[in-house]
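[step 3/7] inverse_fold.run input=structure_tokens len=234
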């Protein structure tokens, strides 16, 4: 939610349509469709375990098309499905990170004693997560669909939601609504240099990725290189 360039593009294109995000029981149940794309993604990983051939290269190309075409096509549907329709129902990478969230430390904690049941958290969630309902039932929001954007945390008028993640093990503190707003707006002294350091790191990673892409070449060359490395490994 904070680092994905695809999400950044969708935020720009679909920002005016955030309020039309489909909600309700059926919209929430349909989130499972993304696991089909996740299965195709796992197939791509499996391809690299075997010597490259025409079939494996064709499969990688097919997967690329299946991912890219719906990604851009779904932008045209933003006035009806909101700005995160692809992320909710089709994105294999979002499903991957969602699984990592489930086995990791990340979650959004819910404090029942201060909640006023206003439902703002559910209404501002671009992923259509029933935040209030899950909070009441479990005391936290830890579903694979949460992207950690923080809208529910910052928009909660009673400050009843807060992030919890690995940072709490290193420096225990309550990163609540007030703390998150202060960090995001640059009010905290260290937040500005942290943002600059992150931007520099992101630029470095993008540059390194481009260099690697130029060195690897086509899909066939990539699979051949990986297979050759596996065969030569002791």
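[step 3/7] decode complete -> sequence:
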């Amino acid at each position: 939610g904070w680092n994905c360039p695809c999400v950044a593009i969708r935020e720009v294109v679909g920002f005016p349509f955030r309020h039309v995000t489909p909600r309700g029981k059926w919209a929430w149940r349909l989130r499972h469709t993304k696991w089909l794309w996740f299965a195709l993604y796992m197939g791509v990983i499996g391809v690299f375990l075997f010597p490259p051939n025409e079939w494996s290269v064709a499969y990688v190309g097919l997967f690329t098309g299946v991912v890219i075409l719906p990604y851009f096509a779904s932008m045209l549907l933003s006035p009806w499905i909101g700005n995160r329709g692809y992320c909710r129902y089709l994105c294999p990478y979002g499903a991957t990170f969602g699984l990592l969230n489930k086995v990791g430390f990340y979650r959004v904690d819910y404090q029942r004693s201060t909640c006023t049941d206003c439902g703002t958290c559910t209404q501002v969630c671009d992923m259509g997560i029933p935040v209030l309902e899950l909070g009441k039932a479990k005391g936290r929001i830890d579903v694979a669909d949460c992207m950690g954007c923080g809208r529910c945390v910052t928009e909660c008028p009673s400050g009843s939601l807060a992030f919890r993640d690995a940072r709490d093990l290193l420096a225990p503190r309550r990163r609540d609504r007030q703390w998150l707003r202060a960090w995001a707006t640059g009010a905290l002294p260290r937040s500005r240099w942290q943002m600059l350091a992150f931007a520099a790191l992101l630029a470095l990673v993008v540059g390194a990725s481009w260099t690697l892409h130029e060195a690897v070449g086509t899909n066939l060359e990539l699979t051949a290189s990986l297979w050759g490395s596996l065969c030569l490994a002791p």
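[step 4/7] annotate
The chain has a mean pLDDT of 82.
The CA atoms of residues 54 and 220 lie 9 Å apart.
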